[in-house]
Write a structure and sequence with these properties.
Order of helices and strands: EHEEEH
Shape: globular
Strand content: 5-15%
Number of helices: 2
Strand order of the largest sheet: 1-4
Radius of gyration: 11 Å
Helix content: 10-25%
Distance between the termini: 14 Å
Number of strands: 4
Amino acid sequence: MAYVIAEPCIGTKDTACVDACPVDCIHPKKDEDGYADSEQLFIDPVECIDCGACVPVCPVSAIYAGDDLPEKWAEYQTKNASHFGR
């Protein structure tokens, strides 16, 4: 189960998770199209290798393993996948 970025990321978009990710599955990056327009970052569920490297570096605790995602933010699992057309 891939990791999911949830509601606490909205408005924050701290990219420490992008730097920590060994497989480059978190987007948009600061230098990518759409970064300024996106209200949060997203994890590609196909590219994510479930390593968890992004979790401890998130300053707002917005990243969860899919199975641990709080029910109140369940829609973020679909939101992350949809961002990548999955």
